[in-house]
């Protein structure tokens, strides 16, 4: 794959393809996944998208500054919601955050259209970034509702200690209480 550029900044083919390496477009390396969301391709791909968005946004100012700020917030919202949703234990909560991430990706696409229509970004960069967004949205759509994906692991439930607690609570409630003395 030939080298591309976004906003005048060269981008490696590895970032565009979002291979299973743990490197980001700025050269930062993550040697191994630390959290479970680090293993998700959609998370790493969304981080690559954020890096490219920031690279282009550096040149946006003046009339484009409001769209730039909105774009960067929406772009950052994608991996943030993926990570938070992946850490949820209930499928309903997890899907809600993944759906928010998908909505943020769609927001990014429309903000890019606004920037392209007002000559904030060139058509080639817009098209490349939209292809990344399409892949992110597709991946999120497939993840929503699936129960067999990587998610944060919780502590193991210790049933024995739960029963010990309940027994102690029961014994306390049913201890022999001294009879109130009747004086009178």
From TrEMBL:
Protein origin, superkingdom: Bacteria
Disordered, as annotated region: 156-184
Keywords: Ribonucleoprotein, Ribosomal protein
Record Pfam families: 23S_rRNA_IVP (PF05635)
Basic and acidic residues compositional bias, start-end: 163-184
InterPro entries to which the protein is assigned, alphabetical: 23S_rRNA-intervening_sequence, 23S_rRNA_IVS_sf
Keyword Ribonucleoprotein: yes
GO CC, one annotated term: ribosome
Descriptive protein name: S23 ribosomal protein
Source organism: Rhodopirellula maiorica SM1
Organism ancestry: Bacteria, Pseudomonadati, Planctomycetota, Planctomycetia, Pirellulales
